[in-house]
Every structure is written in structure tokens, then in C-alpha cells.
Fold each of these.
Amino acid sequence: MSLQPSSSVAAVAAHVGQTVTLAGWVYHRTEKGKLIFLLFRDGTATIQCVVFKKSVSPETFALAQQLTQEAACRITGSVRADERAPGGFEIDIQELELVGVSSDYPITPKEHGVEFLMEHRHLWVRSARQHALLRVRAEVIAAAQEWLNDRDFVRFDTPILTATAAEGSSNLFATDYFDLGKAYLAQTGQLYVEAGMMSFGRVYCFGPTFRAEKSKTRRHLTEFWMLEPEVAFATHKENLELQEQLVSAIVQRVLERRSGDLRTLERDTAPLERCLAPFPRISYDDALAMIVANQGEVEGASPLTWGEDLGAPHEQLIASKFDRPVFVERYPAAIKAFYMQPDPDRPEVALCADLLAPEGYGEIIGGSQRIHDPDLLEQRIREHGLNLDDYRWYLDLRRYGTVPHSGFGMGVERVVAWITGTRHIRETIPFPRMLYRIYP
Ligand code: 4AD
Ligand code: MG
């Protein structure tokens, strides 16, 4: 017997009363006299399987007795609907084939500390909770890309090895690049995706981005994935409308398609169901006033003087006043990136916004209208102490058919942490890179 699976666990409902072969791994095994219960997973779902001593050969029963956690096997048996079973179905096993042994699997059903689990991340990704989290991650990514593709956006891939800084020079990872000096791992694809925008009108890049941040918070990774749409002729206002529609669409699709995973994660879905566009907008100035008016509510959210950046506690306080994500717009230009368009009515603030997720998950999107005037852009590059020569190509975009344009970056891990209700971002990516972790 060496059959390819005739079904997947997720599809057994269509095979009630039939015999199927499934290929996968033993999640858990218990023995009760003449009965052995296997909780079996194949990546699509898990199902309870029963081995009756009297229904199988003595060899098969002996094999079932030896199966350990995470042993790989093929099972053949008949599918039975059973209301008491966890997924509504059970399999009565007739035949078993061991494909790969697993001895002393390190992650047992008992409680392990996070450090231990992180050291075993390569195995931890098989656990039910991690599996559900990473499934939601895949759904978020698919939902975002499909939503954009359906609206005439073209995916435009941007380089990871770059010559310049785009989001400040204090958090760059550098590496030697042959005779050309230093190369830096991209902090964003934005500057390059702006070149694509001038070719295609609506584009997005999606890939890993790198920040050598020495911050050891639950919201920071040194390598994270960012989706960055960029739209020609789009104003700041239109930029926010695109963001709220995209975020609502992602959340609603996860609710529709991954409800089982959200249940596994014990996520209260009521706050997600409310997450429909439009989202409220407040100005940076309103945010400062709100912080003063609600002093003492959130630890660390002390009043700020105009020009200071909001910290995580401030974001938490502001978000707690709304029942869905909230935009904080028009920050002081001085604390934002060099490429942001100043508000024509009030040049000390930028036409930008951060989107704050509810329930304390903080900033999930940062975006802005970009400077389209070549002289102003050049001036800003100088003011930020950046080397003009490095940005020659970027300035060219303003010399040849420049147009007002806007875009934003959505951090995938932050969005997944919020949607799944996961406190720490480290579980929302298969292999997190953080200040103190690069293994496995
Ligand atoms: O606000 P940021 O730095 O914006 C940019 O990089 C722009 N160039 C994007 C654009 O306009 N095209 O980052 C955008 C988002 C943040 O809102 C956050 O979700 C995520 O990227 N992010 C991080 N996620 C995890 N770990 C980090 N260290 C992150 N830094 C930013
Ligand atoms: Mg930001």
C-alpha cells in the first residue's frame, strides 16, 4: 500500500460512508483498552480517528500503539458523521502505514515557555494555534493582493539591496557591496514603487523590509513584510479612502473565510465585524487635545508639546476612543519623512496619516501624499542631511511629467496581530527576526 491521499481532512464531509486515504501526522494519541484514538492532522484540518482492536489486523493495532506525536503516516478508513466529534466527523481506521517516525517530539501538550517555543519555532509552527495564526496571515496577504489586483493595481517588485535610506538613516542594516561601497537592506519599497506608479498609474510592492531597530517591543520586528500601494494623481483624501476600503475588505474576508481559525484563536469577532469603512479621522492637533483630556487613563500617555511624536501609550489611548480603526492625520512635517507633501494651507504639517488599529494594536499603516515639486523635494533632501546625488533618479520622477501622488505602507504582521488578537507580533510571521533572535 502506498497510496496518494484520496481526500484531505478538510474535505471528508463529502465522503461520509466512504473509505478514504489520508496522509499526515499524529497530533495526539490516547489508548483506552481495545480502542486507540488518534488526533490526525494533514495541514488542512484535524480529525479524530479510531482504531478498534477487533476491526484491524494485529499488526495494524500494534503499529497504532507505537505511533508517537508527529509521526507521519497514511491512514485508510471509513468516514462517519458524529456530532460529538470535534470537527463533526470521525474515521474508523482499517489500515495504517508509517511514513516517518518521530521520537521524543520536544513540544508536548504541557505548557512551554515562550523562549523554549521560539527556539523550536521550526516545529512550533505545527501547533494548532500557530497554524491558525499563519493561516490568517496567508489569507490577509491573499485578500490584500487580490483586492488590489481587481482594481487595476499592478504588482511592481522593488529591490531589497539599495543604495540609500528612505525612512531615516539610524536604523539601516548595511552590508558590503563589492567595489561599490555599502548597500543597505530596504526599509521600504516606496521610492522605487513611485517610479512604477509613473509607468502604471496604480501599483503596489509587497516584500520584506528591514529596520535595525534596537527597540524590544511587542510591535517591532527587524524584518517585516509591507504592502505598499502608490497611486498617481491621488490626493491625501483619496489615499485615506483607499486605505479604509482595503482594510475593511481584508477584515471582512478573514471573517468569512477563516472563521474556524479565529475560533481556534478564541478571537472575539464582534470588534472585527464593526470594522467597516469609513473610519474616523482626527488631526494630530485633536490627538494632542484628546491626550490632555484623558490624562491618567493609559499609563505613559502623558501630555505632549506640539511637535513631539505620539508613543505607543498615546496611540492606545486615542484608539480606545473609537470602535474601529482611526486615522491620525496631519502630523508636524518635522517628525515625518522627507518626501511628505506639506499641507498648502499650513506648511508646518504634512499631508500624512497613520492608521491606528483598535484594542491597543497601534499603528498598522503609515502613508502620505508625496512632494511632487522638484525644487521643494530637493530642498527637503538637503534639510534632512541626505546626499542629493543618491536621490538623482528619485528627483527625475519630478522632472519628467510629475503629478501629485499618494501611497501608504501596511505592515502585515501588525495587521495579523490585530485581527487574530495576538499580543506579540513575533507569532504572526513564520520566523521572526528581532533584536535578540535570528535562530532558527
Ligand atoms: O510608517 P512606516 O515607516 O512607513 C513607510 O515605510 C512608508 N515608506 C510606507 C509608504 O508610504 N509606502 O511603516 C509602515 C508600516 C507601519 O505602519 C507598520 O505597520 C509597519 O510598516 N512597520 C513595522 N512592522 C513591524 N516591525 C517594525 N519594526 C515596523 N516598522 C514599521
Ligand atoms: Mg509610521
Amino acid sequence: MTNANRLIIFDTTLRDGEQSPGASMTKDEKVRIARQLERMRVDVIEAGFAAASPGDFEAIRAIAGAVRESTICSLSRANDRDIARAAEALAPAERKRIHTFIATSPLHMRMKLRMEPEQVLEQAKIAIRCARQYTDDIEFSPEDGSRSDEDFLCRVLEAVIAEGATTINFPDTVGYAVPEVFGATIKRLRERIPNSDKAIWSVHCHNDLGLAVANSLAGVMIGGARQIECTINGLGERAGNTALEEVVMALRTRGDHFKLELGIDTTQIVAASKMVSQITGFAVQPNKAVVGANAFAHASGIHQDGILKARETYEIMRAEDVGWAANKIVLGKLSGRNAFKERLRELGIALDSEAEVNAAFARFKELADRKSEIFDEDIMALVSDEEHAQEGEHYRFVSLAQRSETGEIPSAKVVFAIDGKEFTCEGEGDGPVDATVNAIEKIAASGAELVLFSINAISNGTQSQGEVTMRLSRSGRIVNGVGSDPDIIVASAKAYLSGLNKLHSKIERVNPQQ
Ligand code: KIV
Ligand code: ZN
């Protein structure tokens, strides 16, 4: 790295973000997000953890083949097998990075790894030596770094840099750090480790105390880190990771203070946020900084008056600079196949075959018959539906009739197919959604527990499609089903069946932190 003021943005939505319960994504969804991250000019995309499952491996390989501008990275534990698997998945990439890690805190070494510190030190060195066979771009993380002994960290980090690690990532794995201490620790480590200048220092923060962004910025300003690891919408396990949109816009908006250069095209932020939320079923809270629906809405009369006179009175960023203005009516009932295809291209959605375009176009026409204005978000939702259909759904929604009236018990009649064979079922419940789920369960008898139900409008106005997320849990497995439709009860039925489809698929993955 020649420019000491250049800050690297390392996105881990597809790896650490995906570790969030229920957020698992298909290969095609991951490729779609990776392409959007590339459009945003993210420097490094951590595409997954190759050894976790065959699905993760294939997704990394597909991303490594599809993305040209960003460096593609795979996580791996500090062992030969994981590292070889990461290298194999990354083979098609133009620029590749292997990110290997091992826990260094006394608690993790003793309780999780059951290893002595000297063994951990040796294992870390061996891992870097192994990774060097495949690439020169190697990142090392001492997991649970913020709760590790500083003298031990100095020994491990000096050793891995000597072996050839080019990025040292300092994780606050459990979100325990506070900004001044976190920044000062990185500064001291860099001062104490004789070869620290041979590596770029990085920060990776979790948000358990709501301090992930503050800790990341302290790591940069006090500690001298020049890489921030983050995720879109702050997606991640528990309270999530550092939110990309928040650190990026803090660094941009307060460039006078931070004085750092970033390669990010901020106008792609909102599109990325909507894509990730729609694919994972993790809704963005309205008051979320930068990407929340209210982030640029000024309800109070005094604020509105000020904004009209001079926008800077109450706005520190421009909505269009993060991509809000891009939200426009794009297509309608009379739009043809070519206009639809062109809009898919502009949204960066590459459907594999003409048959897939035709199927998505048929869904579009069906939607346009029921909804006069079609927004980008509607197109993204219908492409997701189509991708799930192409993957061969076990359960498929067909139709729904529902009745509710004040003072009466709501009832629903649902038709859905299981492996192509149609079933009709009827149910009653406390409300129309409850009646719909009860009807489906009469046939599906899934044994799943509904642990979260949320509904959001995809775009503005009462004609908007409703997007429903249903989080289902069964035998310790958690999945998010997502469904969208102008009729919110139909959207609920689709979301429930989408959740059952995910539970039905046998994808199992290893969690790197277990
Ligand atoms: O939080 C963490 O420690 C991680 C490491 C694998 C970097 O995600
Ligand atoms: Zn993490």
C-alpha cells in the first residue's frame, strides 16, 4: 500500500453477515449481492467460508468468477484443509485473499480450542506458511483479540507477519470494546511489534454494545488501522457488525476530520441496503442512519421550513449521494420484454438463460396487471421469487381465498403444491395471517415454530407490495422466509412456504466460531 491515507473497505456481508440466524443465502443471491458490492467499488469482498459447506464453496467460486474489480476473500480456520479449500474456491478470482484466524484469548484457547498458548502460536505460523503456497495476499485475525493478553498478541502477530501475513485484522469478536481503549490497544500493538509496518492493520467490530462504528473509527484514528471490516445494514450475528453505510458516510461527511481516501461509490449504498434486506428478510428499521426510510424525512414543520430555505440547515448529507433519488417508477403494464430486460441489466441482475428472463417477465406482467406502477424494489422481489422457483421449490404457493369481518372468526382457504401435487386446505385463526398459517399446517404439519413475523411496504403508498418475513425455527435451525405481494395475506402465505422450503433443504454449514 503506497498511500498512507487510503482506507480499505472490506465487506463481510456474505460471510459474517450470513452467520446471522436465518440470513443464509443461495448461491445466486450471493452473486447478486457481490455484483452490487463491486458496483459500489468495495475493495475486498469476503465471499464466504469455503470449508463451511459445499454450498459456501460453490458460492465463493461463482463470485470469484463473476467479480473482476474487487479482491475476493475466503475465511478459513488455521488448518491446512480449510486453507486448501479456500484456495480452490478462490482459484477463478483475478485478485484473491485468504483470511485465516485462530482464537487468542485465554477463555477461547482454554474452553473452545482446548489448546495451550504455545500450540496456538505454532498453529498460526503454520497456517500462514500454508496460505503462502496459494497467494501473497494473506489476512490473519486473532479471534477475540480485544479480550486477549497483549504480550501474547505481540508474539503471535509478530510471528505471523514474519511468516508473510500482509493484513492484521484486530477483531472485537463479542462487541466488548470501548472506543478509546480499542484504539489505544491497536496503537500500542503497532508500536510494540517490530515488523508491524510490514502489514496493513484492520478492525473488525461487533455491535453488542452499539459501539461497532465508534470502535472501528477509533481503531482508524487512534490505532492507525487502514482497513475497516463491515457489513451492509450492519447485518451479523447477535447485534450485528459495523455498518458499512455508517462508517463510509461518517468518513465522507466528516472528511475534514478523518482526512482519509475511500474508493466507495456512495450512490450505490441504498440499492445495496435494499437488496440485502430483501434477500435475507432482515428489515431495516425506519430510523436507521443513512439507509432507514426516515433518514432523510423531515416531519417537523420547523425542520421542513429550514430545509426549504437551505437544505444544510438540517441535513448533513444529500439523499441522492447515498442513492435515495434512484428510487423511481420504472415500468408499467405496457412495458415490453426489452424494457424489462434493460432494467434488469441496469439493476445488475444477470439471469442465466432466456428461459429465466421469460419466466421473470411473465411474473412481471402478472404483477403489472394488479399494480399500476412497478418500482425497482418490485423487480428485485420478483427476481428473488423466480430464483427460488428455479431452484425447485418443494412447497409452491398457488392461490388463496380469505375472509375476515368484525365480530367473525377469520378463515382462509389456501391452495399450494408439494413437489408439483396440489392440495387445498382450510383453516381459522385469531386473524387472517393466523388462519392462513393454520390452513397450511393442516397439510404441511411441519412442526416449525414461528418466532418472528414482520411486514413492510416495499415502496411508497397504499398500492405498494407488502414484503413479509417469517422466521421459523425447528430443532435448533432458524430460517427466514420472505414473500411479497400486493395482498399482504398472500405475501404472508408465500413467506411461510418460503420458510418451509428453507427448512426442507438440507443445507448444513460449519460455523467458524464454534
Ligand atoms: O468476529 C470475529 O472474530 C470474526 C473473525 C473470524 C474475524 O468474524
Ligand atoms: Zn465477526
